[in-house]
Design brief:
The chain has 158 residues and is mainly β. The protein folds into 2 domains: 1-101 and 141-153, no CATH class; 103-136, no CATH class. The chain has 1 helix and 10 strands; from the N terminus they run E-E-E-E-E-E-E-E-H-E-E. It has one helix at residues 108-119, and strands at residues 18-22, 25-29, 34-40, 47-52, 57-58, 69-75, 81-87, 95-100, 141-147, 151-152. The strands form 3 sheets. A 4-stranded antiparallel sheet has the order 1-2-6-7, with no helix packed on it. The protein has a 4-stranded antiparallel sheet with strand order 4-3-9-8, with no helix packed on it. The longest helix is centred in the last third of the chain and has 12 residues, at 108-119. It is elongated, with a radius of gyration of 21 Å.
């Protein structure tokens, strides 16, 4: 075999974008990077698995490695969303955990600093409403992203 999947006739290229939805969570990602995606409640430790690879991801003809960059879009049931761009040229990432804040978590000191730098309110006159969380506040949710999908090549069916 040549090291690419040009000669693999029984493995047509996989769709480069996967969309999943479960329990109000929505995610889109490159399945050549993600082998498993879950959300974990840090208070209980319980995970909700959104995706687990169940079939070989076939790379396009001429490719023997997955794309070096990957975009992950994630939305919570309340509509809040994040977009994360990952560059892993050397395929070094095995797992990422992204700690997501609660909806009301805003650091007053950060807001005051930004307001001061932007609007000249460094004298503390910037008013910020709401409770200030403790600096070591637990995340509201943890997004777990595992790399290491089964790829063709080198693991091709047939």
């Amino acid at each position: 075999m040549s090291g690419t999947n040009e000669t693999i006739s029984n493995c047509p290229p996989s769709d480069p974008t996967r969309h999943v939805e479960k329990d109000g969570y929505r995610a889109s990602f490159y399945p050549g990077f993600v082998s498993r995606l879950a959300v974990r409640d840090p208070a209980t430790g319980l995970e909700t698995e959104l995706y687990r690879q169940t079939e070989v991801f076939c790379l396009p003809p001429g490719r023997d490695k997955p794309w070096p960059t990957s975009t992950l879009q994630f939305a919570r049931p309340d509509g809040r969303r994040i977009v994360v761009q990952v560059e892993d040229t050397g395929q070094q990432i095995g797992r990422m955990e992204i700690h997501l804040k609660g909806s009301a978590t805003v650091r007053k000191d950060l807001v005051r600093r930004v307001m001061g730098e932007t609007y000249g309110l460094a004298d503390g006159t910037a008013q910020v409403q709401g409770e200030e969380p403790a600096p070591d506040e637990e995340p509201e949710l943890i997004l777990v992203v595992e790399d290491g999908p089964v790829l063709c090549p080198p693991w091709c069916p047939g």
